[in-house]
Design goal:
Blueprint lengths: L3 H7 L3 E4 L2 E4 L2 H18 L2 H17 L2 E4 L2 H8 L9 E5 L4 H15 L5 E5 H6 L4 H15 L3 E11 L2 E3 L2 E2 L3 H14 L4 E5 L11 H22 L7 E5 L10 H17 L9 E4 L22 H15 L4 E3 L10 H6 L4 E4 L1 H8 L6 H15 L9 H8 L8 H5 L3 H21 L6 H7 L28
Parallel strand pairs: 3-6, 4-5, 4-13, 5-6, 6-9, 9-10, 10-11, 11-12, 12-13
Antiparallel strand pairs: 1-2, 7-8
C-alpha cells in the first residue's frame, strides 16, 4: 500500500498501477523527486523504505539502469578478445553514498566510462550501516539523478571468513557468507569476491597444501552462489590467494589455487562457470600504513608479480587477470602502472573517504564528535604505541554508521564542494586506468538482463553477523 507521504512525493511524476510504474515527468523526477525518494529509502520508516526502494529499482530499470554481471567482459579479456590496456576501477563507497555516486556518474558521462564497478565489503556493510539492498538502490537513485544509464556493476567485496586457527574458519562463518551472498544477490550484487585467503595456511610445506582450505571453502560458497543466482545471469566470481597486508603472492600460489579449484569443481560435477579473476597481494595494505604524524608511509608494489599472474590467469585459466587491492592511498604515479601490468581490476576506497573527511569544508565539530565516538567505542582496537593521529586515521571509518545521517545532512554548499572534489579525483583515475571511452566494448560483451521485483522483495533486511573489521582498502 502506498503511504500518503510517498504518494505525495511522486504525484504528477510517477504513476503506479499494481506492480508496474510509468514515468510521467522525467525532468521533475531527476530535479526534485529522486532526492526525496532516496532519503526515504535510507532514513524513512520501514514501510516507506521498502516502498521507496521498490520505486527506485523499477524506475531505474525503465531508464535502462540495469544491475549486471561483468563476467562476460572478463572472460572475453581472458581470451584476449578485448584490449589489455585498461584496468576496471572497483569503487567502495562508505559515506555520503548518494553524493559520491553522483560524482562517479557525472564523471563517467563526461568521459564515456562504462568499465567501472561499485562495491562494498562484508566489514563495510556493518560499520557503514549499509545493507546490500539499500546500497544498490542508492546507486540507482544517483544514476537516475545524473541521467546515467547502462549495465550497473555492483560487487560484494571481501566476503571473508574469520578463523579459529590456520586453515580453519570459525564456527558458522561459511554459513554467514552464504547468507550474505544470498542477500546480496537479491539486491543486485551480480559480482562477488570470495576472499577465503585468511584460511591460507603458510605453515604447510607446499603451495598446494597452503591453499587447500582456501580452495575447499571457496568451492563450497561458489557452488552455493551458482545455485541461487538468477536465471540468465552468470555472477562474476573472484578468488583470492593472498591476504592483503600479508605475504606477497606468487605464480606458484596462483597455480596451486586455480588448479585445485578447477579440479575439484570438475570432480563435483559443476558445469557452471568458474572464476573470472584472481585477487593477489603485491605489497599493499588496506588504507595504507600510517606513520606517527598521520601521514602515509611509502609502499613498494611488486608490479612484476601483478603482471606475471595476470598473464597466467589469461593464458592458462581464461580469466580476466589479477586484481589489485589497497590502492586508493598509493602515490598517483602508480596508477598507470596497473594498466601496464595488465591488472584487470583495482579496488579503491580509503582515499575517497579521506578526501571527504579531510576536506576543508567538512565540519570540524562533526569530526571531533566522530573521534570522540571511536575513542569511547574502539579504544580496545588501538595498537600499542600508536599516536592519536594513527588511532584516528585507522579507526575513524568505524564512526561512519553512527554519524551516517549527520553526513547525509550536510549543507548543499558542503555537499556540492565535496562532489566537485570527488569528480576531480575520479577524472584522474579514469584517465590513468584508461577506462574512458569504454561504452562500446562493454556493450559488445555485456548483455543486460533486467530483473523486475515486487514490493515484497524489499522487506527490511537484518544483519546475520557482526563483523566490524576494516578489510576493504
Amino acid at each position: 500500500m502506498i503511504s500518503a507521504k510517498i504518494n505525495s512525493l511522486i504525484q504528477n511524476t510517477l504513476c503506479i498501477n499494481g506492480d508496474t510504474i510509468e514515468i510521467a515527468n522525467e525532468l521533475k523526477l531527476r530535479s526534485q523527486v529522486i532526492d526525496q525518494l532516496v532519503w526515504e529509502s535510507v532514513f524513512g520508516n520501514d514501510n516507506d523504505k521498502a516502498l521507496s526502494r521498490w520505486i527506485i529499482w523499477e524506475t531505474a530499470l525503465l531508464l535502462e539502469i540495469i544491475p549486471s554481471s561483468i563476467h562476460d567482459l572478463y572472460i572475453a579479456r581472458g581470451k584476449e578478445e578485448t584490449p589489455l590496456d585498461f584496468t576496471v576501477p572497483a569503487i567502495n563507497i562508505r559515506a555520503i553514498t548518494f553524493d559520491m555516486a553522483r560524482s562517479v556518474f557525472r564523471t563517467s558521462i563526461r568521459n564515456n566510462v562504462k568499465a567501472m564497478s561499485f562495491e562494498i565489503a562484508r566489514s563495510e556493510i556493518e560499520y557503514t550501516d549499509q545493507r546490500p539492498m539499500e546500497y544498490t538502490c542508492v546507486l540507482m537513485a544517483a544514476a537516475i539523478k545524473e541521467g546515467w544509464h547502462g549495465p550497473l556493476f555492483v560487487q560484494g567485496d571481501h566476503f571473508q571468513a574469520k578463523t579459529t586457527s590456520p586453515g580453519i574458519p570459525k564456527e558458522g562463518e561459511i554459513q554467514k557468507i552464504k547468507e550474505l551472498s544470498k542477500e546480496s544477490i537479491k539486491a543486485g550484487f551480480y559480482n562477488i569476491d570470495l576472499d577465503l585467503s585468511t584460511l591460507v595456511d603458510l605453515n604447510q610445506p607446499t603451495e598446494e597444501e597452503q591453499q587447500a582450505p582456501n580452495i575447499k571453502y571457496s568451492l563450497e560458497i561458489a557452488k552455493y552462489i551458482r545455485e541461487v543466482e538468477p536465471a540468465g545471469i552468470t555472477i562474476s566470481l573472484g578468488g583470492e590467494i593472498g591476504h592483503i597486508g600479508g605475504k606477497n603472492s606468487t605464480v606458484k600460489d596462483c597455480h596451486a589455487y586455480m588448479d585445485g579449484f578447477n579440479r575439484q569443481m570438475n570432480q563435483a560435477g559443476m558445469s557452471q562457470a568458474g572464476m573470472s579473476k584472481i585477487s593477489i597481494q603485491t605489497g599493499t595494505d588496506h588504507g595504507g600504513v600510517v606513520l606517527a604524524d598521520g601521514t602515509l608511509a611509502d609502499i613498494d608494489i611488486d608490479f612484476k608479480v601483478l603482471s606475471d599472474i595476470s598473464k597466467v590467469a589469461r593464458s592458462r585459466y581464461q580469466m580476466g587477470g589479477a586484481v589489485q587491492h589497497g590502492a586508493s592511498t598509493l602515490p598517483d604515479k602508480y596508477f598507470k602502472q596497473f594498466t601496464k601490468a595488465e591488472a584487470v581490476e583495482v579496488h579503491l576506497a580509503t582515499g575517497f573517504f579521506n578526501l571527504i573527511i579531510d576536506h576543508p569544508l567538512f565540519p570540524q565539530e562533526l569530526l571531533a564528535n566522530m573521534y570522540r565516538y571511536i575513542k569511547e567505542n574502539y579504544s580496545h582496537e588501538r595498537k600499542e604505541g600508536h599516536t592519536d593521529a594513527q588511532f584516528h586515521y585507522k579507526l575513524r571509518k568505524k564512526a561512519i554508521g553512527a554519524f551516517k545521517k549527520e553526513m547525509w545532512s550536510l549543507s548543499d554548499e558542503i555537499r556540492s564542494s565535496l562532489r566537485a572534489s570527488l569528480e576531480k579525483r575520479f577524472e584522474f583515475l579514469f584517465h590513468e586506468l584508461n577506462v574512458c571511452n569504454t561504452t562500446e566494448i562493454v556493450s559488445k560483451f555485456i548483455k543486460t538482463v533486467p530483473i523486475h521485483k515486487t514490493l515484497s522483495d524489499f522487506t527490511p533486511q537484518r544483519s546475520t553477523s557482526k563483523d566490524t573489521r576494516g578489510l576493504s582498502d
